[in-house]
Input
Amino acid sequence: MKIKNLLRRKKSNEIAKDRLKILLISDRVNCSQEMLEMIKQDIAKVISKYMKIDTKSMEIQISKTETKGRNAKNPSLYANIPILDLNKGT
Amino acid sequence: MSEVIVITSGKGGVGKTTTSANVGTGLAAMGKRVVLIDTDIGLRNLDVVMGLESRIVYNLVDVCEGKCRIKQALIRDKRHPNLYLMPSAQTKDKSAIRPEQMVRMVAQLKEQFDYIILDCPAGIEQGFKNAIAGADRAFLVTTPEVSAIRDADRIIGLLEASEFKQIDLIINRMRPDMVRRGDMMSANDVVDILSLNLIGIIPDDEGVVIAANQGEPIVGNHSLAGRAYQDICQRILGKEIPFMEFERSISFWTKVTGIFSKNGKGN
Output
């Protein structure tokens, strides 16, 4: 039982890394998780006017585009929106 | 050509002052002319870590206010004749000096020294702004903890906004045994998150506390931390030094202590 638990449990350094990644994204762009959630809902509302999308599994995140050296990084917004039906409304 | 390095972290208690003392002493031991400046006005510490607290006459604020000449405030180290300390003031606060005064003082010190090392206070307020004003490059000290790394990331943003071209990372208090167990982020993890050039990994070492008790830097002695600081100094001088393999040295050590603890349990 104990060994099973140990195997299933996520190592604490992995937890730390995951927490930091999320934390730093919102720190860097000065934008909170709540605000990201609001952006996500608004995007979903607009897209839904034109096509049927899967709002439950859509993801948005702000990250810095990788270029050489940290100085050249610009934040950009990525949205991954699964489309259920392209021909809604037409 | 002299170089001005600010040692900063954001979060307090991660080892800025220890790093300043040891990097400064290490460079001086390699024959460089070095001055350490404690910029933590109101909470001076570098003097006690260096064991020079009894020799302070004038301080940084006196120099900036023109009450004395730079030379009068500098304290010569007892171990290395080419190492000096500019102590901070204990009775004033961070607003006692302005960044321009710092820039002017650093410019004068550049004439006499190869390396000027600024020990930055914790935080991102006036004291931080004073400390980074005159610096060419920064060493960012962090520990492999979420809180320290988060603050470090914030500092990187502020340093970049001040157009720092060269920021190097020092990871302090590394515990290879915990990394192996998966209970501490590895140096690679931290470098991945902060995407900075790594210049040193300092293992968590009792020797650091003992050395601080005695007012002696640890750099250059045979402890793991002493060797790690020595390596940082070599890298500052442009040498390619591979990072120490703590894993191996520690795993040997744990084997030894492991045997003892097993014996202890047997009794």
